[in-house]
Amino acid sequence: MTCPRRERGQKKIMSTTVKVTGKSNGASGAPFLRIRNLTKRFGAFTALNDVSLDVMKGEFVCFLGPSGCGKTTLLRAIAGLDPQDEGTIEIAGRDVSRLPPAARDFGIVFQSYALFPNLSVAANVGYGLVNRRKGRSEINARVRELLTLVGLADQETKYPVQLSGGQQQRVALARALATAPGLLLLDEPLSALDARVRLRLRDEIKSLQRRLGVTTIMVTHDQEEALSMADRIVVMNAGLIDQVGTPSDIYRKPESAFVADFVGSMTFFDAEVAGPSQVRLGGIDLSCSDAGGFIKGSAVRIGLRPEEVKVRNIDAATANAIDTRVATLDFLGPFCRAQLHPSGAPGVTILADFSANLMRDLKVEQGQQLTVALPPEALRIFARGAPR
Amino acid sequence: MSATALQQGNSIKARISRDALVIRLGIVALVGFLFVAVALPLWSLLSKSFQNGKGEFIGLANYVQYFSTPTLFHSIFNSLWVAVITTVIVIPLAFLYAYALTRTKMPGKGLFYAVALLPLFAPSLLSAISLIYLFGNQGILKSWLFGGSIYGPIGIVIAQIFYCFPQALIILVAALALADARLYEVADALGTTKPRIFRTVTLPGAKFGLINACFVVFTLVVTDFGIAKVIGGQFNVLATDAYKQVVGQQNFSMGAVVGMILLIPAAIAFTIDRLVQRRQVALLSARAVPLEPKTNPLRDAALIGYVMLIGGLITIVLGTAVWASFITYWPYNLTLSLKNYNFAELDPGAWSPYFNSLKLAILTGIIGTAIVFTGAYLVEKTKLAPAGRAIAHLLAMLPMAVPGLVIGLGYVFFVNAPWNPLNIFYGTLTVLVVNCLAHFYTVAHITALTALKQIDPEFESVSASLKVPIWRTYTRVTVPICLPAVIDIAIYLFVNALTTVSSVIFLYGAQTKVASIAIVHMDEAGFTAGAAAMATMIVLTALSAKLLHVLLDKLVLTRLQAWRRR
Questions:
Q1: So what's the pLDDT on residue B284?
Q2: B514-B519-B520-B522 Cα dihedral, nearest 10 degrees
Q3: Are B124 and B196 in contact (CB under 8 A)?
Q4: How far apart are CA B524 and CA A157, in angstroms?
Q5: Residue of B12, B23, B463, B483 to mutate for A, most A C-beta atoms under 10 A
Q6: What does the pLDDT look like over B475-498, one tens digit per residue?
Q7: Residue B214 — pLDDT band, cuts 50, 70, 90?
Q8: Domains plus CATH for chain B?
Q9: What residues in B contact A84, CB-CB < 8 Å?
Q10: CB-CB: which of B11, B467, B563 is closest to A85?
């Protein structure tokens, strides 16, 4: 469980509090969850390094990152299961930094479901209610209400082992929601499920969350899951937050090479800044919309998403049109991924995704020459030396 | 600014909650109990070996005296020699038996396994008593020894073989039962000969089991008291020396020295075994294909013959003592009677030792299981007080390396010490229960840990998030899930408390003499038939408990554990 060390020279975004961009879901005023300067060490290893974050009421936030990046550690610190070494956590304006888990207000769902195998579905869902001095009929009503909510109303007398993985995870969700917590924590809830069930449950959890309006934090290493479910994504790497933003921000405007590489796929090539909006790639000059504040002559790394490579309607006026040879073509179903070798920059490989439609229209074949355009606004400029 | 600086200066600790308080108190109680029950007696033994009869520190003088007395230190060689011979004989015998049970298609495997495990339900000295009936001075097969005597090393080795056989067998069956069929298929596909497959696939797969079995048998023989006492004759071993020094000569310091020396081979064997086992990597990955034995008529027939021979011998040896206990006057009047069960005529305690044993076993089983399982839960499933949990685990693992006789000696010195307020318990059932529990703690602890490790690690987190107290989840979820393991532990403690001789031999009082001690005394007084009768009572009781366990398992547990069925 070691984290890839962040290399020097990368912008350190973390220690400053990440501002919450105005969300459209009516969130306003003080954040519901306020995390300040959280640090957690396991021996010599720093799992969380001075992390600060705000989450607004009703938001669905995903912690996204590779294994060992600290996302689960952060979730468990919020829950109080593995208390932080330094820093503070406030939930709904109340400082809970030193409180044990039971004194905080959250429900949690684990990857393993952690359903009590010897208790029926109904007893599992009602487990946290029994303790609250509620009448039996009141508990039964609440259990039935929750099971209906997750679509398992007819399964209440079964034992967990008699349910499918997806059903078990729904029971775990109902159990976490039973006490009507202010905060719902989901620790890789879908990872143990097979692909089809995962897709369905993804939608179910998202719509349930919208309906209940419960503030939700989900830990995941699956970028697709984060992009499709979250209101905001917190990308983490090596104990630090790399970027916080809406899914489209994270995807379209990654602020670091790490984020760009981790979310979606991206081709990177080394270049040099040749002017205010000009980079030089081997023998090719490319214009870009913004050199990212790098001065002329800086060694930079350029990132380009494969789907941004343009092939149609290229004429003399098209910016960044270059001649390439199609080195390989990999058939991937709805599209083909090509490796393009630009004639003017030997040794450089550009990945490009061609839709099945385009393949048919242009009859692209391996080994042929192809003129493509690299749209200036799609070129992302990063400092050299960032991890690929 | 100063406020944040202050906050960053203090490391964050969760405020003490109700759960945390209960857990911390539990860990403190556990460490305290293990400290008193395990650590302090061993410390008393150690310090006693450096003191003279008046309790003054005299350095190594006792050890010097020990090693300058040939009759004493010769026992070391006797003990080691007998242990090595027994190990060399038992391991191949048990390996072949285990091989037959796991790698052939022979019928009746369950029956033969059960027969081989029978000695576990008897005190070690039962096989020695049987050998006396067969080959002793009045033995019906005495002529088979061609004038040799069963009293001495021959008798000890033979009796030890029967006593240690099931212990080695359990380990070897476990080692051979798990095998990856793919390795055998690959070896076959490469045209490997059968002997080479055995050498390159079967043996390496069982290597760690074999090593472990060797050390277990070696330690058992070195430290066993009952067999050497009954059949050893003039042949002195460490265990009988300790007894003679303490009980015979009241020389506690010398007894402590013998105890310390007895501890050394056991501790070395334990340490080497732990070091070797640590290098063991999981040979069986999750994707391994379990090996299904294939029919091989010739091999299977030969092994059935072997298994019947060994199983038969075990039955005969155990059965002889049982049979002899019903004989009117061996070997002259072989009519059956119950006269040997009239203990009132043979032992001052009459039947009370048997009922003391029963009480001891029941109390150890119930109280011990509660302490061991709750203790293992605190060690495995809670996160507070890591240092306390580490100490508790260490103390729980320690008794494995300590022979029963040694821990018993330690108890004598500890509980007898005039400064110890606990000395009011000397000779009471309480001390016997605590002593038995300490002696057998490790295996029970490991069983509990194994069961607990299989449970989802997040149950405690879930119940904390639902604001349910941890003890509620413990009683409502953890214990019910682990019920089979809990009952296993209870039966293990019950049977061992019933059959143990060595750990209680120094500790009983006038009112608390137990059955195994009564056996030793009756044998000493020449009432071998009475000893056999009492041993038979122990075997019957232990077996009944085991049968009850099997029945409970079948009838009640399957109903309680309905949630396991898909």
A1: 56
A2: 120
A3: no
A4: 64
A5: B12
A6: 999 999 898 899 999 999 999 999
A7: very high
A8: 43-328 (1.10.3720.10), 338-342+364-560 (1.10.3720.10)
A9: 12
A10: B11
